[in-house]
Design goal:
Blueprint (H helix, E strand, L loop, with lengths): L5 E7 L5 H12 L4 E5 L28 H12 L4 E7 L4 E9 L4 E5 L7 H4 L4 E6 L2 H16 L3 H20 L8 E4 L5 H15 L3
Parallel strand pairs: 1-5, 1-6, 2-5, 6-7
Antiparallel strand pairs: 3-4
Helix pairs in contact: 1-6, 4-5
């Protein structure tokens, strides 16, 4: 595998539609051509927070992530090496004993709310896409996801959103929009914007 794999970053606020955009792009470009890395998989294990309980941890702060490991994995993939991506449990707040084997591909997609925040990570991303969705829509999606998929109560989701998610979005996520090469309004519903990104990536893929 060439060391010139195209690295695409898809950022945006929580529940903005990043995963939908990523899936649409991967389907259009051919999933066999894509190595997908999700920043959420690189959450630090609960044991790395000095004895704090989960409710005491700000999971929307950059310090909650092992970003250096993600950076190393991107570099390994670009160097033609297979990597073992952590598998994180949102119910135990720990990494499981499983790992996801990711082989090097022509295109590497990195997805996460904070992937444009850390300069070292941002600098190795070739194409930066920011998914920009209305705040009200995002909070409703977050409640639906965390209650139905992660076993949370509505009260706990709302409390976390007010106390950490919204403040961290304003402080760390929203400002990174300025680094984006492309901004997709309305998330995964914006077929025109997604199609334009796919066309651009097809063109760029030929040059990498």
């Amino acid at each position: 595998m060439s060391s010139h794999s195209l690295v695409v970053g898809i950022a945006g606020g929580t529940s903005s539609g990043k995963t939908t955009v990523t899936r649409e792009i991967a389907t259009a470009l051919g999933e066999t051509n894509i190595a997908l890395l999700q920043h959420d998989s690189y959450y630090k294990d609960l044991s790395q927070f000095g004895g704090k309980q989960a409710h005491e941890i700000n999971f929307d702060h950059p310090d909650a992530y092992d970003t250096q490991l993600l950076i190393q994995h991107i570099r390994d993939l670009r160097g033609g090496k297979t990597i073992h991506q952590p598998v994180y449990s949102y119910t135990t707040y720990r990494r499981t004993n499983e790992e996801k084997v990711v082989d090097p591909k022509r295109i590497i997609i990195v997805e996460g709310i904070l992937i444009f925040f850390e300069p070292e990570l941002r600098d190795i991303i070739d194409v930066k896409v920011f998914v920009d969705t209305d705040d009200d829509e995002r909070v409703l999606r977050r409640i639906r996801r965390d209650v139905l998929e992660r076993g949370r109560t509505i009260e706990s989701v709302m409390e976390q959103y007010i106390n950490t998610v919204k403040p961290m979005h304003l402080e760390f996520v929203e400002p990174t929009k300025r680094w984006a090469d492309v901004i997709i309004p309305r998330g995964g519903e914006n077929r025109v914007a997604i199609d334009l990104v796919v066309r651009m990536l097809r063109t760029l893929d030929l040059t990498y």
